[in-house]
Amino acid sequence: MFTEAFEAILRGYCTPAQVRAIESGGTHFPLWNAIVDAGFLELMASEEVGGANLDLASVMPIFCALGAHAVPLPVGQAIVLRTLLPQGELPPLGIPTFAPALVHLPDGGLLAPLVPFGALANQVLGEMDGALWVLDTNVARRDLPGLHRDATCNLHWNAAELGKAGRRLYGTAPAGILHAWSAALHAALLAGALRRCFELTLQYGNDRVQFGKSIGKFQSVQHQLAVMAEHVSVARMAVAGAFTPGARCPSLLPAAVAKAAASEAVTVVAAIAHALHGAIGVTEEYDLQLFTRRLHVWRMAHGSETHWHRVVGQALLDGTDHCVDFVRALQSA
Question: How far apart are CA 26 and CA 147, in angstroms?
Answer without folding.
Answer: 18
